[in-house]
Amino acid sequence: MKADVTIFLADGFEEVEALTVSDILRRAKADVALVSIKDTKEVESSRGVKVVADATFDEMDFSETRILVLPGGMPGTNNLQAFKPLEELVLAHAAAGKTVAAICAAPKILGALGMLKGRRACCHPGFEKELIGADVIMNRPAVLDGNIITGRSMGCAIPFGLTVLGALEGAEAAAEMAEKIVWMPIEYNDIG
Questions:
Q1: Which of 53, 64, 135, 171 could make an SS bond with 36 (beta carbons 3.0 to 4.6 A apart)?
Q2: How confident is the model at residue 184, as a pLDDT?
Q3: CATH number, domain with residue 102
Q4: Measured on CA atoms in the order 58, 16, 184, 140, is the torsion positive or negative?
């Protein structure tokens, strides 16, 4: 199986971060695949939600993949980080100038691989020290720096997903999608 965007799922993944990105991309008619790093397609989220992926890692052909997405969640992030074939793919993908996106705790994977040195990045509060060598930006929901996209947390899944869509299809496509889904930043004091 091939896809323009692959979103990796490991047991313990954060369901909102994975599925919101998938939803935004699919609404835009992007070719996206949810990919299990397990031998089976069924993956259980950090809150016990069972999701059936489109394919397993071994069933995928990543040769034409444009963007790799790593959702956060615990222990999902640690499970992704421990899966060596994914580590090798992420490094090769980024070295080829292709986009890698990680949200919440998952940017720590990029930090451990040395991919954030000299780059702006964000993450879930408490993981800043694991963004080794990064210029940590914590006042934005998502940060794009070259071919690396990072996002803060579950509450930032929509702007993160829109940033991924923008990297795939351009800023205009992301802006159109934001309008279609009626997404707009709000201030905390705007909430009833």
A1: 53
A2: 77
A3: 3.40.50.880
A4: negative
As a whole number of angstroms, the distance between CA 151 and CA 180 comes to 21
User: What stretches in the chain show pLDDT beneath 50?
Assistant: 189-192
Rounded Cα–Cα distance for residues 89 and 8 (Å): 12
Which H helix or E strand runs over 157? helix 157-169
- pLDDT digit string (tens) for 137-191? 999 999 999 999 999 999 999 999 999 999 999 999 999 999 999 987 655 544 4
Domain, as residue range, for 27? 5-190
Identity of residue 51: V
| DSSP state string for 21-84 | HHHHHHHTT--EEEEESSSSSEEEBTTS-EEE-SEEGGG---TT--EEEE---TTHHHHHHH-H
pTM > 0.85: yes
Quote the number of domains for the chain.
1
Rounded alpha-carbon distances, angstroms, from residue 34 to 4, 8, 70:
11, 6, 11
A 10 A CB-CB count for 123 gives 30
